[in-house]
Amino acid sequence: MRTAIIGAGFTGLTTALRFSQKGHAVTIFEKEKFCGGLAAGFKEKNWDWSLEHFFHHLFTSDSATKNLISELGLSEKFFYLRPKTSIFYKGKISQFDSPLSLLTFPHLNLSDKLRTGLVTFYLKSTNSWKSFENITASDWLKKYYGEKPYQILWRPLLKSKFGNKADKISMSWFWARIKKRSQKLGYLEGGFQVLIDKLVEKIKQNGGQIHLDSEIKNFNDLNHQSKFERLIITTPTQQFFKKMTVPEMLGAINLILILKEKFLADGTYWLNINEPGFPFVAVVEHTNFIDPKHYGGNYLLYVGGYYPQNHRYFKMTKEQIFKEFLPYLKKINPTYHLSLITYRLFKNLHAQPVIPVNYSKFIPPHRTTIPNVFLANMQQVYPWDRGINYAVELGERVANEVLKNI
User: Which CATH architecture group holds 2-81+186-247+363-403?
Assistant: First the structure.
């Protein structure tokens, strides 16, 4: 049977690999001119390694992706490092990634610090995510962390990410963010584009086809291509099922600055912006994680956030967004003379589901009401969040579900 897959992100590529390994004819249609979705990379002329359009890394528990890396013969290229995570609050950067850094965090008293540590340990230890599903993150966090830790640590991040939906987000979503996070972060030599390229190579070796710059907007578009007996959709649910109740999706904006000098001089890799009023939620200095020698000696800085799909940023140029972000970057490092070489802007309208309470009741099944049409996208990875590992897991899961019934 001939199978069509819509979308060449990690879910589509993983699914295609499994089908092609079983001898099934598989064709991927991808609207972009590249594979990899949100994890796709680019490379400047003097770089040895590629860089993802949107920041990516793996946690120590991301076994599905690590297994795939091993299967494809890339284990020697995979490694872990322990970069520094910090918070920007009240005009200062404070490290916040370990029990010791919590104890030295200047904005909480000892009682709040001990309480924060104990509650975080509980969230890391428990596996009962369903017990968090029927309460909002804001209500749970205020109750158990306390008002001050909530207002300083968690409220700014919920607000920056979800805007006016911040108070409606399920605590199960927040639990997953704490549960999965690890101090060590994984990366691939050459960037995750190496894994994408290897998947593409294997799929093609197995007889699979990949059509780039080929957007399929509806079922009619696919029928015009050729006859397929099976369809797997890895793009947002609304694209093909407009009447189905699914969560709202937020878009993402990511401005990548290529610099001559380091921006976060204290060595911070990931900087959460907890200061109110900033137009972005995080500043990520990739070259405080990965050696700048792989990027021609340049320093790479991600500046980004999540926004409603109708936000004005999605209509703005990179020059306009850079101009708007620059005053806030100067607040983070007032002494920095921005040694800008160039910058790139990446946008995606479907980067983050807005997860309300009791979301498990609304997750669409992989098998749709249309015979031989299946759905596998980031709106179905709950309680986990978007990311490479969850996309790979999803691809494995839908491939198993479909193949066992063939």
Answer: 3-Layer(bba) Sandwich (3.50)
